[in-house]
Amino acid sequence: MTKIPELHTGSTRNRKGYLSPIEDFQIPFGIVEGVQYGPTLLITAGVHGSELCSIEAALRLMNIDGHQLTRTLFVLPVMNFHGFRARSIYVNPQDGKSLNRQFPGNPLGTASERLVHWPSGIFPKCDAYLDLHGGNLDEELKPYTIFNEDSEASKQLAVAFGLETVVAASGTRRVSSSYATRLGIPAITAEAVCNGLVSEDKVSLHYDGVMRVMAYLGMLQSPALPLAVPERRFVKLSVPIASAEGLWYPRHRVSAHIAINDILDEVRGIFGEVLVTVTAEVSGEVLYRLPSLWVNSGEQLMGVAYMVPSM
Fold first, then answer.
1. Angstrom distances, CA of residue 134 to CA of 162, 191, 202, 290
2. Which helix (DSSP H) or strand (DSSP E) does residue 113 occupy?
3. Which domains does the chain have, with CATH numbers?
4. What is the pLDDT of residues 111-149, one digit of tens each?
5. How many helices (DSSP H) and strands (DSSP E) are in the chain?
6. For residue 255, what pLDDT band results from cuts at 50, 70 and 90?
7. Other CB atoms closer than 10 Å to residue 231's CB: what's the count?
């Protein structure tokens, strides 16, 4: 199937299958539809193919009973299917590009650019969008959600998802949720778990977050009691970038608190010579970091969350 399937038939259903968004590329999908009128929610996962807990949570969401829902849940659980099968970190092996840096894509571009252009026909059919991520094989992180800082509706989705840390980010990013928000669809990115690990408690971070969002949107016929969530904190991110390739020696682990001008890490040559020393530009907490011993020039080393009083 190459076209976007019909999302609203007026009948309760649970449909699964494969879509071919571009030539020689298939991805699985699931549609769960209830008979009553209500919002349509789009879920994607596996935009990065080694973020396994988010993929498992999305696969489970496709098995929800349609009689529990109003309107439609549309799930694309493994967007980067080639990357998933190849255990590829970040990129689509077809062209070596990260899908979540290509939006809005290009219908005449490379495989990744064409693939991410395809959802532009889906976003306008939906009332909200959640992109589930979850700590690639080379990432350590503390769970958080991200929303476009100029979208109050997206901020409320992030609050409803229920993770403690909520990151306000620029609306110009070339990621899926940011692009959807620019098209007028409230959207967030959820980051949970690290190092590509799969466990029930980590899968539940995504699954329960989606259920809370559906309850918030009025999509559940009989909403369960709200799950306990911590008080939210709203932050922004400072993201130091490697200016040289080499051996990377970070000095702070995830959740560590740092002060302005603290030394964050060093990039060294293969024989130990210091090539770059990176210092903190803000005071805050290490929200995620790259645990790999090797780093390439231009890669994100870590994200430092810092409080913004006006938020």
1. 15, 5, 9, 13
2. helix 111-117
3. 13-217 (3.40.630.10), 236-307 (2.40.50.100)
4. 999 999 998 889 999 999 999 998 666 678 899 999 999
5. 6, 19
6. very high
7. 5
